[in-house]
Amino acid sequence: MSFPRDFLWGVSTSSYQIEGAAREDGKGLSMGDVFCQRPGNIRHGHTGDVACDHYHRYREDVALMKSLGIRANRFSVSWPRVLPAGVGPVNEKGLAFYDRLVDELLAAGVWPFLALYHWDLPWELQLRGGWQNREIADWFAEYTRVLVTRLSDRVTDWVTFVEPAAFLGGLTNGQHAPGLRLPRKEVLRALHHIHLAHGRAVQVIRQTAKRPVRVALSHVGKTVIPDTESAADIEAARHLTMFADETYNNAWLLDPIYRGEYPVADVPGLQDGDLKIIRQPLDFFALNFYHAEYGRAGANGPETVARPVPPGHYTAFNWEMRPEGLYWAIRFMHERYGLPVTVTENGMANLDWPALDGQVHDPQRIDFIHRHLLSVRRALQEGLPVEGYFVWSLLDNFEWAEGYEKRFGLVYVDYATQRRIPKDSAHWYARVIANQGTPL
Ligand code: FCB
Asked: Reading across the β-sheet that carries 224-226, which strands appear in turn?
């Protein structure tokens, strides 16, 4: 079976992880810029100051996408590049960068998916409480309006947030910026503010856009695979997928957005009318997928199952490879929320290097993506609407607390020279795209 003709083969990237130019052209500090300065926060003391220098090399990077036949790029905007203080005066030079990037993508036949927030909070707003301050919903709406006003004559696909569950880690375990360890109640309050900001942004996008738009939020969360495909195990896995984690499970992260309700009553900071703002119609479910676990119907209800991972099925991040989980994640999210799904991130970390022949051979990544695409194909064969698949990531990049050590790119980046070398996986992905998925 080949994939649908209009299937969107994409790559995802993110501003802080690739742009560099951290203090150029009037950009304000982001909380990442500050976080990286503190010794001990990032492996090897790396920072995003230069990263892949995409800010200066975006033309080359878009040309790479074009040469690989990539049809879409979910990229994100650095909020402090556009609004150095988070609100107030616009930095025209920063905004102009995204203007040029969008033009370049469109000219190359690469459809832009613009993510408003991939963890790049203006430091000035962090000083005012960041996600803990309810006013952030207004700040985010203002920022959204600036981008939509400028870019919506060309950009039609908008992603409000990338992975609230992941960047909330910056408030729970200190691993990400801003590096806080807050009590559970305060984390849940911040999550409520993220939901509010999402709702406000969707309203602004729909009211302000110059063309018809499609809006989504890129979600990452728990996936539980049924131990057997018996009806009872499937039901148990579905339940665990939605409700298993205590602090903020998938239901907590998603039900307010798609159903206008929280799974519990005592939500810190919830006010009358909030849920109406949060529940805005969305056009597709953007799913990021990296790992999964197993579960089944036990004697006392749903329970997770410890299944050994076959030797070698770990990535350099120590994340176990469970490609079948992608099928279940697509299925469970579609069943509960009723939207078509686009996989907006999936990929693996490796310790790639150029071989003596000058090429970068990464057979594990090819196998990893291949297996995940088979899961997507299973979903399609069963009639589940899957509209696209985006590899994380185009380039090796600044991998947050892990610095530059582990590499996720289809394209190798030599950070000393900024030379790009498409890896074997890039050439393989190009063939998959050119053949509409048929070699799989
Ligand atoms: C995701 C993030 C992305 C990258 C990958 C490996 O959770 O969205 O920025 O770090 O993981």
From this structure: 224-226, 293-298, 301-305
User: pLDDT value at position 312?
Assistant: 76
List phi, psi (to 5°) of 75.
-120, 165
Full-model pTM: 0.98
Question: Which CATH superfamily is 8-434 part of?
Answer: Glycosidases (3.20.20.80)
- Using the mean position of ligand 1's atoms as its centre, give its distance from the Cα of residue 165 in Å: 11
What is the 357 CA–ligand 1 centroid distance (Å)?
30
Query: Quick check: is 345 catalytic?
Result: yes
Smallest Cα–Cα separation from 387: which of 10, 1, 117?
Answer: 10
**Probe target for ligand 1 pocket from 345, 368, 369, 407, with the most ligand atoms within 8 Å of CB:** 345
Which ranges of the chain have pLDDT less than 50?
none
**Ligand 1 residue neighbourhood (C-beta within 6 Å):** 14, 17, 162-163, 166, 220, 345, 392, 399-400, 408
Residue 307 in tokens: 């299944």
Could you tell me whether strands 293-298 and 341-345 are parallel, antiparallel, or unpaired per DSSP bridges?
Answer: unpaired
Q: Is 418 left (phi over 0), alpha (psi -120 to 50) or beta?
A: left
DSSP state of 30: B
